[in-house]
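Why does residue order matter? Because the sequence determines the fold. Keep that principle in mind as you read this record.
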Amino acid sequence: MPHFNSEGAKVSYDVTGEGEPILLVHGFVANADDNWSRTGWVQALTRAGRKVVTFDLRGHGASGKFYNPSDYTIEKMAGDALALLDHLGIGRADLMGYSMGAGIAIYLAARHGERFGSVVLGGVGGRMLEPSDRGHETAAALEADDLSTIANRTAQGFRLYAEKLGQDLKALAACARAPRGEDVADLLSAIRNPVLVIAGARDDMAGDPNDIAERIAGARAEIIPGTDHMFALPNPMFKGAVMDFLTGWS
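Structure:
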């Protein structure tokens, strides 16, 4: 993957296809290849005549690693995405984020909505609005010397996933401990882009996507039956709903 420098952070990225651009933002512990190529999104979007821009978030994949939580604020994570569009000379693009990537997409749409067209928020729902210390539990799991000491199954799942992808566990732990930024409800109310909020019916990590959509003017929600957080992206119904939204059929 080629890379560029974003305010001191190496950001690895890829561009595939020609046409109207769409920026894809992957989830926590994942990387661009695992979230977007392995699951068929890059292929589906390029077949639909889109230019697909993917990148590894800082601390993930081939991008730069940092070990201080302050290096993973939402402003810095979102800033890398904007810097990438500038680097590529893309003034405006559609936007899709999944899980943590959807949180970054919310910030981008709320604070830089003029840079984006349609916005897809995947793998998020009402749980995003709840106070939580899940980040610190996940960080502790990523740093644990003995996997058997990790009681939280979700945190253990993140650890196993990170190891499978060969990620830098200490960098991810710092990312998990990053301070929360602006209030999510305030960000949602500031969004004026067309928005689809979508999650699996069995996605207990996300909760109900309607709880997010009702806080965004004109947004709508989709719940995909029979799928959870880990298996939503390759799900054909999930993909079909997003493609219909992006093409204006829904």
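The chain is about 40% helix and 20% strand.
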